[in-house]
Amino acid sequence: MRKILYQKPKGDHKKQEVTGMSRGNEKGVQEVLAQMELNREAISGKTHYGVKIYAHVLRQYYKDEVVLVLRGRHCLPAKNPFNGDKQTLHVGIVDGEARHHDTEVADCKGDAYDFAQLHYQLEGAELLTKLNEELGLRIGRGFGNCDSAQQVGRNEVKKITQITQFTQEGKSGEIQVPEFSFFKKPVRNTVPSGGVSLVEVYEKIKGISYQKCTNALRMIQDEKEARAYKAKQFDYVTFSGTFVKRENSALVQHSGLFAVDFDHLEDVEGLKQRLLADPYFETELLFVSPSGHGLKWVIPIDITKATHQQYAVGISNYLLHTYGQKMDASGKDVARACFLPCDPHVYIHPKYT
C-alpha cells in the first residue's frame, strides 16, 4: 500500500459529525445513524477504547508484522506510516480512550478517530460507518439477527466472530465481572469448591500461589510424567460457567466466556501480542500455560446469539484461518477444565482494573 506522510486532518470531526458530503448523502447518512445508534462511544466500547482501531489501520500497512504491543494501558513505540515508517508512534489509554502522539511530528496526535481519518480520508458519520463495516462491529439495529445453527457453523469466519462484540456493562453502567466454578486439585476431583470471579483468578495467577508447582512442572522432561504431575498438582477452573459437577450436563449458568488453548508454540510472546491486537475478539484474560509453551486465551461470547458449540466451530475456523493454529477439539466442551499456573505477566482487560 502506498505510504503517505502525516497531514493534519482538516476540520474537527468531534464537533462536526457530517462533513465533506453532498446534502443528499449527508441527510441519508444522518437518518441511518439515527436509526442504528452508531456513534463514537459505541465503537470505542467494542474496540478496547479504540486500541483496535489503531491496530486495524496499522495492519493495512504492515500486514505480516505485530503492529502494536500492549503493556498495561500503553503500547510500545510502533511504526508510523504517516511518518516514513519510523518507530515513533505512541498509543495509550488515557481517561478511558485510546490516544496517540508521535515523538517527531508535533501535530500527529489525537484519538483513534483522528488516526483513522488519516488513512481513510473520511470524516464524521462516513468514518464511523467505515469503521463499523471494516472492523465487523455490527453496531445498529440492522445487525441484530443471527444466522441459523447450521449457518453459524458453516459460514465464513467473520460471521461467528462479529456477534461477540458486546459490552459486559449492566444497566447501572457498572462492569459485571464474570464468575465460574473453581476446583481444588487433583483434576479427578469433579465437584467445585465454590465460585470464583475473573478478577480473582487473575490475582491467583499473577501471585505466588502456583509458583512452586509451575516451576516444578517445567523442570520435568518426560511428557507423560509432566501430564501426570499437572493433573495431580494444579487447581483448575471452568471458565465457561458454574457447575454442580464438572460435566457438560451439570451446567448451572454460562459465564459468557470461551477459553482457547494454544499448545506447543514456537513464539509464545509473538502470538500473545497478536491476540491482544485481534480485531474481532476482546481479550478478557490471557496467560502462559503451565508448561510454559502455550497460551490460554479467554474471550467473551454471547450465547443468546449462538450456542457454545457453534462458537467453538466458528472460533476454530477463525484461529486456523488467521493464526494458522488448530484449536483443541475439547474446546467445544462447556465444562472444559483449565489449570491455573503462575504467570507474573498475565493480562486482564483494563476495564476490570
UniProtKB/TrEMBL annotation:
Protein name: BT4734-like N-terminal domain-containing protein
Annotated organism of origin: Paraflavisolibacter caeni
Superkingdom assignment: Bacteria
InterPro entries tied to this protein: BT4734-like_N
Stretches the record annotates as Disordered: 1-24
Domain called BT4734-like N-terminal: residue spans: 231-347
